[in-house]
Specification:
With 602 residues, this protein is of the alpha+beta class. Helix content is 53%, strand content 18%.
């Protein structure tokens, strides 16, 4: 029983560890999904708020544009004379022509004049078969408000034109007395068309919750909640919505801005704001499927990444265990050899045999060391191949995608899209060329000792570095003498400065100070080149690790990590040395020290 327990105990421990790892990965994936969901939701909330503010301000400006029109027209002498001669057909026709011209130039929906009893005396639509001249609109709230000396504002469906619009009415005063009302009707279908072209889901509701404007035609003149009996009677008496049924929409409308709404298994984010002078509310609906897909994608990526790391850790643990077992076996072998040597020390034959055994052991050890060195080389080669393959796969995948799209665009005859894709393909091939050029430069070994005057190379280096500095909003300051001799070939010197300044510009990140300093100091027997920045600095433990090939703190796809290795190789080939350190006031400093030949010593 004890033997069986000892046999199964490691397996049980392994299963428990595996269960713990799987649980941890699942919890990390869920957390990544939740954080991605919240981040995307906040971003969409912000974007929709900005879009809603733009739409509401545009609508408010459109309505305000016609606010003063009825007031100005009410001061017209021809309009006032019409009220004095209300029964004159000639005067009515004259004013109707005048209103027609004003309505056409202003871009409003309709202009008309009502007498004190609400009867239409003149209208801009006098030439239409359904003109409203002679109709009485005393029942409209905007007429009552204007006749009482105020400004009448009202949204409704025309009882004769059956067209919705916003009505603004102003009293017509003659000698201080109100004799009539002038009304402008503003069309709203243009704003709905613009919203619909933008692909947005927008609706506007009045104070009673009636949808008066919407990019979804089926929702217009429906209600967001049930209307009470008094409200329905008030709307019927004013004929505000003509014969519309005012049925409630088949879903529960959210109570506050930023809440969510579900329609036919589609979850929407609803943003609402007040607009206009009629106590309206504008609502913008945004689809949350993108945010949900992003959350699932984050969970999948996190889960797979953690799974890969776990597998790598388990594999490393297995290698350590094998190495430990190998070392234990080797130690056992050595003890065995020592024991046999002591046993055979009495005779020469046994001594010779022991010597022979030791020679065999040394040969085996040498073979093992050779195999270990070869294995290390293969691992380094594998690391390099993996790194290069990762860097090249991204542009290659992009080239394949752009080529497939270009073939489809060619079939459709869309030459503009073909040209744009070819530009993208050229950019990707340039990126691949830059990577391979960096590898060739890393592998090449050319003579670098020579003579250069850095002051003569400054202008060309400024032009070369200008795009990189502008991309990072950085400024390079030179502190050199003229002339400024450097014991390097011009191309080698340019390669050192371009790599160090480019790395410094990329390292600035979010730093407030965007300055990069380049300083050359002439010493007895050598010259020093210092390039410093105000970025986050280097790793404090081993700052010189940055000169190792393929070491990079940048995200994948932003270089192979060979730039500083190339610089270090050039400096070493020139007989100099290079060091990296952190400055006391922040940022990193790279110092290059190059020896001068006897004739170069200043």
């Amino acid at each position: 029983m004890n033997t069986i327990a000892r046999t199964y105990k490691p397996h049980i421990r392994f299963l428990l560890q595996l269960l713990l790892i799987v649980t941890g990965i699942a919890m990390a994936a869920v957390l990544a999904a939740y954080l991605s969901w919240q981040r995307t939701l906040i971003q969409q909330h912000t974007e929709m708020s900005n879009q809603l503010a733009l739409y509401s301000s545009t609508m408010h400006a459109e309505l305000r544009r016609f606010e003063a029109l009825p007031y100005v027209l009410a001061l017209s002498s021809s309009v006032q004379n019409l009220l004095r001669e209300a029964n004159s057909p000639e005067r009515s026709h004259q004013v109707s022509l005048y209103l027609e011209n004003i309505n056409r130039e202003a871009g409003s929906g309709m202009l008309y004049v009502l007498d004190r009893d609400g009867r239409t005396l003149a209208s801009s639509n006098w030439a239409n078969s359904n003109n409203i001249i002679g109709n009485n609109y005393q029942f409209r709230p905007y007429f009552s408000a204007a006749r009482n000396g105020g400004t009448g504002r009202f949204f409704g469906i025309g009882v004769d034109t059956h067209q919705p619009g916003v009505y603004i009415a102003q009293p017509i005063r003659i000698n201080g007395q109100i004799h009539g009302v002038l009304v402008v009707k503003i069309k709203t279908d243009g704003m709905e068309t613009n919203w619909r072209k933008g692909g947005e889901q927008v609706l506007v509701s009045d104070s009673n919750g009636v949808v008066i404007m919407s990019t979804i035609p089926a929702w217009k003149f429906s209600t967001l909640q049930e209307l009470s009996a008094p409200v329905r009677k008030q709307l019927q008496d004013s004929r505000q919505y003509d014969n519309a049924a005012l049925a409630r929409l088949p879903f529960d409308w959210p109570a506050a801005s930023g809440d969510r709404l579900r329609i036919n298994n589609q979850e929407l984010l609803v943003m609402t704001s007040n607009v206009g002078l009629l106590d309206w509310k504008m609502s913008l609906l945004g689809d949350l499927s993108t945010a949900r897909h992003q959350a699932w994608l984050s969970a999948a990526v996190t889960g797979f990444a953690l799974l890969a790391l776990t597998m790598a850790a388990l594999y490393a643990r297995l290698l350590r265990r094998r190495r430990r077992d190998s070392l234990a076996a080797q130690q056992t072998l050595e003890r065995t050899v020592e024991e046999r040597t002591a046993e055979l020390a009495s005779t020469n034959q046994r001594l010779l045999a022991e010597i022979n055994d030791k020679r065999q052991a040394e040969l085996a050890l040498h073979d093992a060391q050779t195999e270990l060195i070869q294995s290390s080389k293969l691992r380094a080669l594998g690391l390099m191949a993996t790194h290069i393959a990762h860097e090249l796969n991204q542009p290659l995948a992009a080239l394949r995608s752009f080529a497939d799209n270009t073939r489809q665009y060619l079939a459709l005859g869309q030459t503009a899209q073909v040209d744009a894709n070819l530009e993208r393909i050229i950019a990707q091939t340039d990126k691949l060329g830059a990577m391979t050029a960096e590898l060739k430069l890393f592998a090449a070994r050319r003579p670098v000792r020579g003579h250069s005057d850095l002051s003569l190379l400054q202008a060309g280096l400024d032009d070369t570095l200008a795009p990189r500095l502008a991309l990072n909003n950085a400024q390079l300051y030179w502190d050199i003498e003229r002339p400024c001799p450097i014991p390097l070939e011009p191309l080698a010197l340019e390669q050192i400065i371009i790599n160090l300044v480019s790395n410094a510009a990329d390292a600035l990140g979010q730093s407030v100070t965007r300055d990069i300093q380049l300083r050359v100091l002439s010493r007895a027997g050598h010259v020093e080149l210092h390039i410093s920045d105000h970025g986050p600095g280097l790793p404090t433990s081993q700052p010189d690790r940055v000169f190792e090939p393929f070491y990079s703190s940048k995200p994948y796809g932003q270089g192979l990590g060979l730039g500083l290795a190339i610089v270090a190789g050039i400096v070493r080939d020139a007989g100099g040395d290079i060091h990296a350190s952190n400055q006391s006031d922040g940022g990193a400093c790279f110092s290059v020290r190059l020896p001068l030949a006897q004739q170069e010593t200043p």
